[in-house]
Write a structure and sequence with these properties.
17 helices; hydrolase; 661 residues; nucleotide-binding; membrane; 26% helix; binds guanosine-5'-triphosphate; P-loop_NTPase; 6-stranded antiparallel β-barrel; 31% strand; globular; GTP-binding; disordered N terminus; alpha+beta
């Protein structure tokens, strides 16, 4: 699973639009936090009492605040190192690998960070207390928006590299992102306890790739705690403090929000100027709505209430009465106190990333529609990057079309839906958006095959069809080179460059359609490299393409939930696969069933299911009343699970099996 996830990383060019930070010293520190009501409780508890924490924080001037994050490739040890730092500062009690900041079930199970997490710490250095603010960011680039927001928010970062793996694709990608935002970087080499750790080579790579002096690198084992104490003094000495004036009118920036069933929407905020207390009246620049502050506090790692949050600090805010809808909390919004609107200049917000991978989800039993809707809405409260639209399929009934930032994002959401809500759902394979340029000048982006222009007349109106391309970066051992090139070429890839990272590690860059990438490209790559390849990608552009809509027909009736927009070159292969696979899952009927795959009126592939006669009741003796009744009831129950496509009755499970990967 871990290898699979490693392959499943993705890079998207999501640029934060927060163009504040004219100088590094003035850079806003905007870490992100995330909690769900049920998973909020971190396992470990702080050593310090809340009043002790508040008293100490109150004494710390802004010059002794430090906001930083950890930049690393997937699995290089960010969450483990965060645990050690929290222990070292007495924020949590020592002992075991807790992954305190990985709060979601899916994060703990998969061992990946999905949401950026934040925690304040108090660290005594040379007799003075410092208020540190750490963000553990996700390594997977599907969650790139989280990462960039964390980077924008910090004054510096630990550049963490696993000494047994060296610099990897994500280290490079995340380094450039952090570097471009002017973060002060502190090189840290982790996992030096591993017998196959190659410290010298990793340091050399850090120098070659990032021009970071090996002399400055800190060699640690986050797992055993070896030398971790050397990190925080460097953070204090090298990372600049945030700036801000507590006596100015309040300028509060909304970094993140999540939903608590007890207190409504919780806001994670960074105070740029001024200070905030319970009872203050705030106004949002984005919505104009007014709120009264109910409580303010810090994440330590649980919420610890404070009487005041001051300029330079990052903390949480609840309103009273509470904010009920997460949509009201617009990430990147600025708030000030009522009456000061004219004196405060709002900060530029964040650019929201656009979804690029879409699936449709239907409840197995239509009676569960409302439950599925509730489940999805519950998850959306804490992940607003997912888009949702109602969808109706003739075969599968009412459902939803969901949009995600990437395939991992999609698969994580699906897992969370199943884990947290036990929903039994049918999910269609992922698709990507397509652009249609009409002759009359209209340009439309479609995310649902049902919107694809059909019929010769409509097609005559179309001037151009376009699909999204991505630039992929593949890193793998040299011995798999031939096989990897073969896979890329057969997925309509165009080679852009090939270089050797080390004597045996190849870095290959290919441009390819995103549609190919979401079509189990990772799976194919993984199986042909014994799981050794890593893959990263970023959006390239939209290109003109010969795309068509392939439809599955059952006795001439289209099965809408199965139709797909794809490149002409794939039509025969996919069409043949479809009819063969669908045939396997459809029971015989009283009449002949013809299954076809077609593009418009052109049939690409065909299979036939011979008729079958079975009259169960006829075989029973007339006096066998109770068995007869039982059979009729069973049939009635069974009918609930049936779907009709034209006159053909199909078991729900047939769709499930057909649409399963
Ligand atoms: N031997 C050894 N293992 C480590 C060390 N640090 C972390 N690990 C292990 O490496 C694996 C990944 O660690 P995480 O802390 O989850 O990595 P991460 O970078 O947070 O992962 P993502 O959040 O998914 O990007 C876990 O199994 C850790 O126990 C170390 O110093 N030595």
């Amino acid at each position: 699973m871990r290898q699979w996830l490693q392959l499943f990383s993705r890079r998207r060019a999501v640029q934060p639009a927060l163009a504040v930070a004219p100088r590094l010293a003035e850079r806003p520190s905007l870490p992100r936090a995330f909690c769900t009501s049920n998973h909020l409780r971190a396992q470990a508890q702080s050593h310090h009492t809340p009043s002790e924490v508040e008293k100490r924080i109150f004494q710390i001037p802004i010059e002794r605040y430090r906001n930083f994050c950890i930049v690393a490739h997937v699995d290089h040890g960010k969450s483990t190192l965060s645990d050690r730092l929290l222990e070292l500062t007495g924020t949590i009690q020592a002992g075991g690998n807790k992954q305190v900041l990985d709060k979601l079930d899916v994060e703990r199970e998969r061992g990946i960070t999905v949401k950026a997490q934040t925690c304040s710490m108090i660290y005594n250095y040379k007799g003075d207390d410092y208020l540190l603010h750490l963000v553990d960011t996700p390594g997977h680039v599907d969650f790139r928006a989280e990462v960039s927001r964390s980077y924008v928010s910090s004054g510096g970062a630990l550049l963490l590299v696993d000494a047994s793996q060296g610099v990897q694709a994500q280290t490079v990608a995340n380094f450039y992102l952090a570097f471009s935002q002017g973060l002060e970087l502190i090189p840290v080499l982790n996992k030096v306890d591993l017998p196959h750790a190659d410290t010298a080579r990793s340091l050399e790579q850090m120098k070659e790739n990032f021009e970071l002096d090996p002399e400055n690198a800190i060699l640690v084992s986050a797992k055993t705690g070896l030398n971790v104490e050397a990190i925080l003094p460097k953070v204090i000495e090298n990372i600049p403090a945030p700036t801000g004036d507590p006596s100015k009118p309040l300028k509060l920036f909304l970094i993140d929000s999540w939903y608590s069933s007890f207190k409504g929407v919780v806001l994670l905020v960074r105070i740029f100027e001024g200070q905030i207390r319970a009872g203050d009246h705030l106004v949002s620049f984005a919505t104009g709505r007014k709120y009264t502050v109910g409580e303010v506090g810090i994440q330590y790692p649980d919420q610890v209430p404070q009487s005041v949050l001051r300029a330079g600090q990052v903390g949480y805010v609840y309103f009273n009465p509470s904010m009920r809808k997460t949509q009201e909390a617009k990430l990147g919004d600025t708030y000030t106190k009522v009456g000061f609107e004219r004196q405060v200049q709002p900060l530029p917000g964040f650019e929201e990333p656009k979804p690029m991978v879409f699936v449709a989800a239907f409840p197995v039993d239509q009676g569960d529609f409302e439950h599925l809707e509730d489940s999805i809405n519950q998850l959306l409260l804490n992940d607003r990057s997912v888009t949702i639209q109602k969808e109706a399929s003739q075969a599968l009934g009412a459902g939803f079309r969901l949009g995600f930032l990437g395939t991992l994002h999609c698969s994580v959401f699906e897992d969370r839906l199943r884990q947290e809500h036990g929903a039994s759902i049918i999910i269609t394979p992922p698709t990507v958006p397509f652009q249609i340029k009409y002759r009359d000048g209209r340009e439309v982006t479609i995310t649902n095959p049902a919107e694809f222009p059909e019929g010769d007349h409509t097609k005559r109106d179309v001037a151009e069809l376009r699909e999204p391309y991505v630039l992929t970066t593949l890193t793998f051992p040299e011995e798999y080179l031939g096989r990897v090139i073969e896979i890329c070429e057969s997925n309509r890839g165009e080679q852009k460059s090939m270089e050797y990272f080390t004597a045996t590690q190849v870095i290959l860059k290919y441009e390819m359609p995103l549609a190919q990438l979401v079509d189990d490209f990772f799976g194919k790559l993984k199986s042909s490299t014994k799981g050794y390849a890593t893959l990263d990608y970023e959006e390239a552009d939209w290109r003109e393409s010969n795309i068509v809509k392939l439809t599955l027909l059952v006795n001439k009736e289209p099965v809408d939930a199965v139709s797909r927009v794809l490149h002409e070159s794939q039509v025969r292969h996919v069409g043949k696969q479809w009819v063969e696979k669908f045939k396997e899952h459809v029971d015989r009927q009283m009449f002949e069933v013809v299954i076809q795959a077609a593009v418009g009126r052109q049939v690409i592939a065909r299979e036939t299911i011979k008729p079958f006669r079975k009259d169960v009741l006829a075989k029973l003796h007339a006096s066998d009343v109770s068995r007869r009744r039982k059979l009729l009831e069973k049939q009635k129950e069974g009918r609930k699970k049936l779907k009709a496509v034209g006159n053909v009755v199909i078991e729900h499970s047939a769709f499930q099996a057909f649409l399963a990967k």
